[in-house]
Amino acid sequence: MRIDTSGGLPALAFGRFVLDRASKQLLEDGKVLRLGGRAFDLLCALAERSGEVLSRAELEARVWPRTVVEETSLRVHISALRKALGDGVGGARYIANVPGRGYSFVVPVVALASEQPEAMQEAVAVVLGPVPPARRTHNLPGRLSHAIGRLTVTYALSERLARQRLVSIVAPGGMGKTTVALAVAESQLERFADGVWFVDLAPLSDPARVPLALASALGISVSSTDPWANLREPLRESRMLIVLDNCEHVIDGAASLAERVLREAPHIRILATSREALDAEGEWVHRLAALEAPDPAEPTPLEQARTFAAVQLFAERAGANSDSFALDEANIAVVAHLCRQLDGMPLAIELAAARIDSLGLHGLAARLEEMFTLLTRGRRTVLPRHRTLQALLDWSHDLLTDGERVVLRRLSIFRSAFSLQSAAAVLADAELSAQAVVDGVLGLAGKSLVAVDVNGHAVMHRLLYTTRTYAAEKLASSGEARRLALAHATHCRDVLLQSVPQRDTQPIGEWLQSYGRMMDDIRAGLDWAFSPAGEALLGVQLTVAAADLVYELGLIDEFRGWVDIAMEAVGTLQPPQPGLELRLCAARGFLGAQTRGRHFAHDVHVRRTLELATQLDSKAQRIEALFALCAKAFGIGDYREVGKVARSIRQYVPEPDDPAAVLLSDRFLALSHHYLGQHEAAKPLTERVLHYPAGNAYRQYIGHIPRSVSMGILQARILWMQGACDRAVERAAQAEAHAESDNPLALSQALAMGTIPIALWRGDNERAQVLVERLRRHAERHSQAYWQSWARSFEKVLTVRAGGGNLRLGMELGPMESLSGMGELDMLGTLVESSVSSIGVERADSGVVGWCAPEILRAHAENRLRGAPDQAVAAEKELTRSLAMARAQNALSWELRSATSLARLWQEQGRRQRAYGMLSEVYQRFEEGHATADVSAARELIAELG
Question: Where is the OmpR/PhoB-type domain (predicted)?
Fold first, then answer.
């Protein structure tokens, strides 16, 4: 009922309590109870509207007006209020949580006129009479902690119970089935006139004793030989909810009881928890998911990470076990990693948090592989099998059939999701047929020991990390480990080889969804194959087979290590394997262009690659080798060599025979022309590559960077250099957009080679700052050391432009150790004049690099003038040469920079009219980009000179 308070604040009476709102006191049997101010206000808000549901927003507005409240504050005060009222003790209920809606005061409330406490108590006695003993309406065990992250599922299951008479909560052990069931049961106390009854089946060993457990919970005396004879009549017309907890080990008895109760007692509903479905008539199964944890692929800010249930649970339990623990920016990544490794399993997270005081957070994370000896400190009051992770899984293991135990331990060889076909291919042998493997996987899935994912193109299965670690120990002691490791690595190799034709015929996103999940298994296969107990030939084969997938995923730095190991191994194989060696040489060539710290000599690598290409009578392998040489030459900044090798590809392949090879040749020729400063020659080649009718075939050799990205970057750069400054920005943005949906390398290249330098060349430092931050985060996320180096250099450029001094790389080769290669050195020379070194000038002078040569010479001349005024003659010669070179390249943007520098020099020398005419002529050829820094600076200088 709703209390009218318009005429004052009458006291409110309920049960043994009187709420004196005027004096802000709560009395229990005449004694004043200590209650905080917030809790008192909260009690007033609930009691005044007894029987109604008040939302969180309504309660917070009443208790914390004009204050921003943390999500946990309301729960904390509700908890304190329940404790003060004895809510849940002896069956008494005062405050009910209505999932998804809010809280409700569920006892009758009476308004009293008298203001004195003694009179109030007398009035209560008159109005309510003596308080009768509370009717026992449930036997739910009291919960000492709240269920974190389960509000939505609790509400959903409560709603489901209104429509279904038998609902089963199914999940692996330790996932919190009982906790959720109790939360659901508590929310149903007002719905069932004859109560809610909890039946714990865990102590039973005989399925026939399930009816006896029900009778005991209900307080009904029954015959052990025919318990149903005494249960039938009490249950027939009852309106109650029965919770059957821990059904898995007596599942036949639980299913039989559920069917009989529902058949003969039409008003009863049953909520069951089990590790497998009861398979009873009318059953509705809810598979309880793990607690959510942050995505490992995305660094998660602290405030966002706090919203994940797994993190909340760990933080709460860790804080309870260690006064010094607090979730913060410094430890959130470690906490998120722990929660993911423990599969979001509440029991495992609680056990881990219990060790925080003795091991510390980092010590706990470092020793997680020892989880079955580490996670042993559970609460003494819980079931023995819930005190340690080992005991929990031993319990589940003991319930399996012999065949399921074999399949479970063998499945631990997989590191990621697997299909039924893969499981059969790896696990089956003379003693275990493929069909037996399939049956075993399905049986384990039914018992919640194998997770099932139906969200992709195919149904996939996987072991939780905790279960796999447990099963791996069983496998290690079985004597089967080596045979399984061999079968597993062989299967990975075969699947990868079969995947290549599909890559050329289906969208790359679908292909990666199908095969990208294999990377953890590929890593495990390589680890084993190159170990002393493994097989080196298989390791080399698996390395070669994995190359295409690795390139598409952008895992360049990681794969470089495997290629180096495979190169050492391939030289020891007997008989020799020239085909595999050539594929590894090709991989090294490409990786050499994408990684820092190259450890092998370029000339030796080129000679060996060409020797193998000549030795093998394979057109495809020859072209792949030449692609590797192109990529390698480009990576070290030898653009003449890029063009030379690109032309030689045509010698191997006539145009009609292999469109992919044609694209490969034209693509690298376009790169060679542009980077040598021959922009007009590069332009038609970029168009030809973009529109050549090759479909997906281009991925055969250059699949890691789509042509829409590589040629889009090139076109944007050419547009900028030729003075089309605005169109250059648009074209670079298009290339970046194409790269976003493709592989990680494509986006890094689009940012570092296209959008970022164009923004910096235009003088748009604010936009460049945003793009550089994006490149840095992206390169770090995908462990791309090569592009991380570019990001650091761009950040230094922005620092210098903001007044942070000079960016001097020095005059010797030594400073190059801090850069990824010559390409980065060349780029820096166009962004900060002080970064130009003798190496850069020598490359520009010799014609090894052309695209940046006019700007490198101009910047070098400016550095001369700043360093020594007597260098004016030499600087003028260099600026004149730079201007002529830019004109020869039709690089209008470089020409404008050179003309501006030369005009300033002539202005200082008193040759203003000549400077005005020369600079004005260049400026007037710009049809767009008038807001760029260079064009604005030229316009201002022209005004001064005029």
Answer: 9-107
